Amino acid sequence: MNILHHSPTFHRTRARRDPFEARYGAPLPLGLRDEAAGMSWDMFDQIYSPRRGRYRLEHWRLHHLGSGKAVFEAAVRVDEVPHTSTAVASGPIAALTGMLYELGCNIEIVGLHQRKIGDRTATFLHAERDERRAWSMAINEDPVESSLLAIVAAANRL
After folding, report:
1. CATH of domain 54-157
2. What is the three-class DSSP state of 2?
3. What residue ranges in the chain does DSSP mark as E strands?
4. Separation of alpha carbons 42 and 117, rounded Å
5. Where are the domains of the chain?
């Protein structure tokens, strides 16, 4: 009978291969973990959470309408040109992806994962645009803002 034992060395080796786990003690989503294996934290952060790019979310506000609906307002810069958008949606993720679509960025979310890290939330987003897929990440104190920033990071990667 073969029994697989996990040794402390196995866990340390895996953490070194996964930059998020090495930094925060929690693993990346499986597909992203394989893609980011062996990267330093700085490299991982620069690639998956770009601070610069074509799209930038500058302002976000919501007004509850009741019945599960809300009006979302956002100020988004596209190539440094400011745009103000509004959307009626059931949630902020649908609202922002709809706003980006109107601005010429038709991304589709194919996977979303969130992890609590202390008092912050890390959001990992797998998105698709024009048959290309990319992962993105954002970390923020507010889980909703973390999701929105991950969407913008995905738009900039695609």
Report:
1. 3.30.160.270
2. coil
3. 55-66, 69-78, 81-89, 108-117, 120-129, 132-140
4. 18
5. 8-47, 54-157
